[in-house]
Amino acid sequence: MESPINHRTDFVITLEMHDQIVAAAARLRAGGVVAFPTETVYGLGADISNPSAVRRIFEIKGRPVDHPLIVHFADAARLQHWAQEVPEAAWQLAEHFWPGPLTLILPRSRHVPPDVTGGQDLVGLRIPDHPVALALLHELGPEKALAAPSANRFGRVSPTTAAHVQEELGHAVDMILDGGACKVGLESTIVGFSGQTATILRPGGISLAALAEVLHGKVVLPQAKDSTVRVPGTLASHYAPLTPLEVWPTEALWQRVRELAAQGLQVVVLEWSEPEPVSPENSSILYFPMPSEAFAYGSQLYATLRRFDHGRFDRLLVEAPPADPAWLAVADRLQRASCMPFDKLQPR
Ligand code: TXA
Ligand code: MG
Question: Which atom of ligand 1 is the closest one to the Cα of 148?
Fold first, then answer.
C-alpha cells in the first residue's frame, strides 16, 4: 500500500511553547477560548464539557448555534468514549489516518453534550496531527476534548497562520498558540457512514483515492440533493474572500482578465498551468503563479486569498483546477469562494 502523505507540521516545541501550552490548558479548564494550530487550519477551541465556553465559540464566530462543531481528542483508543457506535470501516480509517486531516461523523456518546453537535445525535470526531494541538490535548487529559471550528468568522476563509487569527479574532479570544503555518492548509475531509460504506461529506486533507484504498473502494461522494446532515462547510457560499472571486477555464482566463483590466479594474490572476511568471501586460494586472500539484496548491490557497483580500484589488481571477479527483478539495473550496458557479463559466 502506498505510504500515506506526512501531514504533520514540522514544529519543535520549545520550553517557552511548552509553558504557553500549560497556560492555554489552564485557560481552557477555566472556561476560556483558545485558538490553536492544527495541520489543516487554526481551530478555535473550548472544553466541550463547559456550556458557556462552547456558547462563546458560536458568538465569536457569528455562527448559527444549530451548526455542529468538530470534537478534537488525542487518543484513538478512546474513540468509543466519544462515539456510541463505531463501524468497522470507521476503525479502519481511524487506524490508518489518525492523527490526521480526517473527521469521522459517528453517533455521539453521552460524553458529548448536544450543544456541541447543534442538537444532532451525530458528532464529528478528529485527532489533529500537529505537535502543539496534541500537546495541548495531552495536557488537558484523557477525559477532556476540545470543540474547535476553524478560527474565522462564519463564512470567511479559514486561517492558516496565527497572524490570520490575530487579525480576524485577536480581540475576542483569550489566547492564540502560534504553531507556524499549517501544512495541509485546507480543512479535514469529513466522512459519514451508511453501514460499512463511507460518504465524503466535505473533501479535504485526505484524498478520495487514499480513503478508497483503505476501504477497498467502499467510499462514495454524496448525492447532490442529500441534505439529511447539516454541514455548513458545504453551504454554497462559504470560505469566501471579501473581494469577488471568479474561476475561469484555462482557455478563457486571459480574455476575462483583459476585459476587466480594460474596465480599469485592478485584477489578481492565480494560475497553476503556467510555470513561468507572465509579465503583466498592464499595470492593473498582478500575476501570481500557484503550484501545479494539488496538495501544494491546497496548502497555499487560503493564505494566498487572504494576501490579496485587502481592498486594493477589485477582482480575484482564478484558473479552474484540473478535473482530477486529486483536486476535489481545492475545486470544492474555489467553488464556494467564487461569486458565480463554475458551470456558468463557459469558454467564449
Ligand atoms: O480541519 C478541520 O476540520 C478544522 C480544524 C480546526 O480541525 N475544523 C473545521 O471546523 O473545519 P468547522 O467547524 O469550521 O467545520 C466543521 C464542519 C462543519 O461543516 C460542520 O457542520 C461539520 O464539520 N460537522 C461537525 N459535526 C458534524 C455532525 N455531527 N454532523 C455533520 N456535520 C458535522
Ligand atoms: Mg470553518
Answer: 6
Asked if the model's pLDDT at residue 141 lies above 90, the reply is yes
> What average pLDDT does the segment 10-39 reach?
97
Cell match 480526517: residue? 102
Taking Cα atoms as reference points, which of 53, 72, 198, 212 lies closest to residue 132?
Answer: 72
Report yes or no: 84 and 149 within 8 Å, Cβ to Cβ. no
Ligand nearest to the CA of 183: 1
Measured CA to CA, the distance from residue 297 to residue 206 in angstroms comes to 14
Hey, is 267 helix, strand or coil? strand
In our burial notation (b when 16+ CB lie closer than 10 A, e otherwise), range 88-107 reads: ebbebbbebbbbbbbbbbbe
203 C-alpha to ligand 1 centroid (Å): 12
Centre of ligand 1 from the C-alpha of residue 339, in Å:
23
Using alpha carbons, select from 12, 44, 9 the residue that is nearest to residue 129: 9
User: For the CA atoms of 198, 203, 204, 210, what is the dihedral angle to 10 degrees?
Assistant: 50
Render the burial of 134-149: b for 16+ CB within 10 Å, e for the rest. bbbbebbeeebbbbbb
CA-closest residue to ligand 1 atom 3 = 188
> Cell 483515492 sits at which residue?
209
The verdict on pTM exceeding 0.85 is: yes
How many whole angstroms from 322 Cα to the centroid of ligand 1? 26
pLDDT digits (tens, 9 = 90+) for 156-204: 999 999 999 999 999 999 999 999 999 999 999 999 999 889 999 999 9
Whole-number Å distance between alpha carbons of 187 and 41: 6
- CA-wise closest residue to 192 among 212, 222, 216, 217: 222
